[in-house]
Write a structure and sequence with these properties.
The structure is a single chain. The chain has 226 residues and is α+β, with helices and mostly antiparallel strands. The chain has 9 helices and 5 strands; from the N terminus they run αααααααββαβαββ. α9 links the parallel β3 and β4. The termini are far apart. The mean pLDDT is 84.
Amino acid sequence: MSDEPHYKGHRERLRARFIEGGDQGLPDYELLELILMRSIPQRDVKPLAKALIAQFGSFAEVLGARRERLLEVKGVGESTAIDLKIVEAAGRRLALGEVKQKRVLTSGRDVVDYCRAAMAFADREQFRILFLDKRNGLIADEVQGTGTVDHTPVYPREVMRRALELAATAIILVHNHPSGDPAPSQADVQMTRDIQAIARSLGIELHDHIIVGRNGHASLRALKLI
C-alpha cells in the first residue's frame, strides 16, 4: 500500500481537470479547493471547501466574506483567510483593468460586470463612485464609505468635493445591497436626486446610480428614477 495521503491523487486529478478545461464544469467547492491547496498543502481541503460554501453560499460569497468571518470557520487560519482575500482583490483588479481599457458609457454592461465583481457579494454596504472624464473614460474608482448590512452614510457635498479634485466631468454612483435584492429604496432615490442636483449646479453629469446584489442589479436611470 502507498504511504502517500489519500488526497494526493485527488489533488493531481483536480489540477489536471483544471489544466485541460479551465473552470468549466468545476463546481464552486472544487474551484475553492484549488485555492485552498496552495494555502494548506498538507491536508485534505475538500471538507473545508464544502464547509465554506455551506457557510457563505457560493464561491463568490466566500471570497467576499470579511476576514473576521472567514476565521470563524473551523480549519481557516490567518494565512488562509488572507490568501482568499488576495484572490478576491486580484479578481477585482482584473475587472477594473478591463473597464479601464474600454470606453465607459453610463451603465454599460462592462461597468455593471465590474461593479458586481467588486461588491455584489460583500456582507456590508459599500458606496463607491466611478469618476469619469469628458470622454467617459474612468479616472478613478473610489469607495466613499462602508456601512452596516443595510445602510451606508453618504454626504453629497463630499462626493462633489472629490469630483472637483479629480476634475471629473461625470460620475456613476454604485452601492450594494447585501440582502441580495438590488431594488432601490426611497432613501436611495432621494439621495441620488440630492447628488444630481448639486452635480448639475457644478456642471458635472450624473450618468447613473447602479445598485448591485447577488440577485442582479438595478439602474436608477433605466428605471427612470433620475
